[in-house]
Amino acid sequence: MYLYSLTLQQPTGVICAINGSFSGGKVQEIVVARGKVLDLLRPDDNGKLQTLLSVEIFGAIRSLAQFRLTGAQKDYIVVGSDSGRIVILEYNKEKNCFDKVHQETFGKSGCRRIVPGQYLAIDPKGRAVMIGACEKQKLVYVLNRDTAARLTISSPLEAHKSHTITFSICGVDCGFDNPIFAAIELDYSEADQDPTGQAANEAQKHLTFYELDLGLNHVSRKWSEQVDNGANLLVTVPGGGDGPSGVLVCAENFVIYKNQGHPDVRAVIPRRVDLPAERGVLIVSAAMHKQKTMFFFLLQTEYGDIFKVTLDHDNDRVKELNIKYFDTIPVTSSLCVLKSGFLFASSEFGNHALYQFQAIGDDPDVEASSSTLMETEEGFQPVFFQPRKLKNLVRIDQIESLMPIMDMKIVNLFEEETPQIFSLCGRGPRSSLRILRPV
Asked: Which residues contact 247 (CB under 8 A, 6 or more apart)?
């Protein structure tokens, strides 16, 4: 007898999504987290998304990340959840299931603010993983192989800092030097002791680099610097010979390149022509595409506009940061750029779509912003654009998602007619008014 509690209708909204080669070889796949369900998707030869595996985990998935050990042929999946554990999964192609490679307990169960699980960051070379909480705690695990080439995981190394709120973390690509993780943090210790509220108004966010010393097996705060208080997201910049390293800090109205010992390179995010001046622009999701000779970033704003970000660099020195309008699609929770030429856009409220690249946004006539634009007395010179239909992307498949009901009314206009139910479903550009008539 199995006393499992299952719902008839599985959740359809996607909390987060990652892409990689989980079955091995050059096949590109997508893993999506639908609350308590973990799905493995793969585009077929016709560009249609096929569900290879769907697993009920009986918990709440908060974050996902993938990594690959140096020289390996497949990717592993790291899951952050409400279980108080870090779980590493491997897809078993023969059995069509996720094998649990490691499960290490570090805290109590539940979505707690000081128990890690909300944030995950991977060293780009697959040597370590940082799992962080909304507040105070961060743990680093070293990943390696044993003599039988099986994945091993170390004991947790602490990188805690009390009275500190974390907004985003990511791994810094520093080649094969000691792994470094970056975090946007806010220290509220003074604000907590000041009843006047003055200290809270003066609280400042910082970008902090944590270094994992593989020789001493110790994590230390390597570097910390003030960052724009509107900063909300970090994006890893390729390094180790492939790029200048460092991170992109996505803040309100700006994208900033930062690295230790490097001056800030800042560019303004282009604005819609009809956007009120008092409304800011925030980046909500990001993806990076890297080839042997080039790389670029796709950043999406809260209004659905996607921008292509490129760096003009000479070795480890960034000379210019360029932001160019790419396309506009519904707001996503995650963007995944596949090496096979597809873009998977998952959404928490609405349908999920698979797009194919028709171009990579090299049109010189498109509105663009650059870090070399002149700064005026009122700030950086704004750049305006007008949204248009898809030009660089074409949608080839879509996964239907149930929309949440925001409001509902029963209307009976005439006594002889059957009452109708009017429901407002979803929110944003894909919301709809649905009319139901009882049979």
From this structure: 170, 172, 182, 207, 234, 235, 236, 237, 257, 258, 259
